Amino acid sequence: MSSKLCLVTGLQWGDEGKGAIVDFLADDGEVVVRFQGGHNAGHTLIINGEKTVLHLIPSGILRKQVECIISGGVVISLPDLQKEIDQLKQSNVSFDDRLYISLNCPIILSTHKALDLAREKAKGKNAIGTTGRGIGPAYEDKIGRRAIKLSDTFDDGKLLVKLEELMDWHNFQLRDYFKSETFDVSREFDAILNYAEPLKTRFVDTNQRLLKHINDGKKVLFEGAQGSMLDIDLGSYPYVTSSNTTIAGLLSSTGLNPKIINDVVGILKAYTTRVGGGPFPSELNDDIGAFLAKKGAEFGSTTGRARRCGWLDLVPIKAAVMANAVNHLCLTKIDVLDGMDEIKICTGYRLHGEIIDYAPTHSDVYMYCEPIYESFLGWSESTVGLTEYDQLPDNAKAYVDFIESYLSVQVSMVSTGPEREAVIVKNNPFK
User: Fold this and answer.
1) Would the pTM count as exceeding 0.70?
2) Phi/psi of residue 353, each to 5°?
3) Looking at CB atoms within 10 Å, which of 52, 117, 310, 413 has the fewest?
4) Each residue of 103-146: pLDDT tens digit?
5) For the segment 321-376, what is each residue's pLDDT rounded down to a tens digit?
6) Residue of 23, 28, 39, 43 with catalytic role
7) Per-residue DSSP letters for 323-376?
């Protein structure tokens, strides 16, 4: 039996609604894999009016038949992982044999969070706008080959030696450079073991487990965190996250062959949002931007920070489609545009007098890009909760058609509200 492998990835600066689409598609799935990021991600699921916010656990967890895997590209905060597990159990979600975590995952320490916060404070007005959760410093230690990994929790002696060496380096920076509070190694050691002990049955070689599922012909969804334009290599550097958010991150995290990925669903919001600092050519600092923020409830599910809002910008999305080999698009939050007289889409930039149709990867260049817009007539009808494409207003269909034409990829799904079933499916990529 042939397996089916499908990646769901964001094409903007995150917050595109990936979690809800993963949950929707997982109804036909058997395995969902989270492959990068940490608890800086926030995936909100609304089912029968009840909201569930996930940060580390894959969005397939609310589907009873789905096994969830956190692969080695994810950095793990053990206290936050346990908190998330406890919250799900309080909601009567049972998953004792449905959640597995890679032994290769680096552990986020208290000192990682302290360093993250101290650096942002020291940068002042030039701060990047991180979540302050220690994600970047944890990835630094991974690249520096000094990370503490979940596998280390099975050897107390090895763990203590590695922890002493790493925290000595962290405390040196905190004390002597940032003039900040330092942390006790023995307390951190005890905390890691206390949190790890009840979870150890979940710490496995997830790459081998995933490979067995694929060989058994199972249907697998891969769930990214953040968005393609926050990729450490392809995003608007330095205002990016600390991992590869694109299909490249999936491949390195799981060890899979790129040729076996059957489909890639790129998620884009019907307008653009961004959290924190960084370039945003189509940003609207006016009543329209405020309208989108309010109607779209644009507040971060991880930090609660207000998101910056603007018109849909297809220029970086075009690059993200290329980078991820996207062959299906899912347009989310089209209902937020209901009632607008005019809607715009950015289709290019003016940069130093020239017209370009690509997104620079470095913010020093990106900052000088002026948006070029196509204008569209809005629609007065409500699209909330629609499940059939023919039900969309003609002007909404024209909006969707233009996106398809510009990106040369079919819009296979359109999300029309926060509820699980509020999705128009023209072509289910996971069927």
Assistant:
1) yes
2) 90, -15
3) 117
4) 999 999 999 999 999 999 998 888 888 888 999 999 999 999 99
5) 999 999 999 999 999 999 999 999 999 999 999 999 988 888 888 889 999 999 99
6) 43
7) HHT--EEEEE-GGGGTT-SEEEEEEEEEETTEEE-S--SBHHHHTT-EEEEEEE
362 is catalytic: no
pLDDT at 301: 59
Class of domain 110-198 as given by CATH: mainly alpha
Helix ranges restricted to H, 237-286 = 247-254
Task: Provide the residue ranges of all domains of the chain, joining segments of one domain with +.
Answer: 4-102+206-260, 110-198, 267-425
Residue 328 annotated among the catalytic residues of the structure: no
Measure the CA–CA gap between 238 and 242, rounded to whole angstroms: 10
How many CB atoms sit inside 10 A of residue 368's CB?
Answer: 13
The Cα–Cα gap between 229 and 326 comes to: 14
Pairing of strands 31-34, 67-70: parallel
Q: Which of these is catalytic: 15, 141, 231, 335?
A: 15
Considering the domain delimited by 267-425, tell me its CATH architecture: Alpha-Beta Complex (3.90)
- Percentage of residues of the chain with pLDDT beyond 90: 84
Neighbours of 79 (CB within 10 A): 15
CA distance 128 to 284: 20
Strand partners, 67: 31
Rounded to 5 degrees, what are φ and ψ at 30? -125, -25
4-102+206-260, what's its fold?
Answer: Adenylosuccinate Synthetase; Chain A, domain 1 (3.40.440)
Q: Is 215 exposed, middle or buried (0-12, 13-18, 19+ CB in 10 A)?
A: exposed
Percentage of the chain beyond pLDDT 70 is: 99
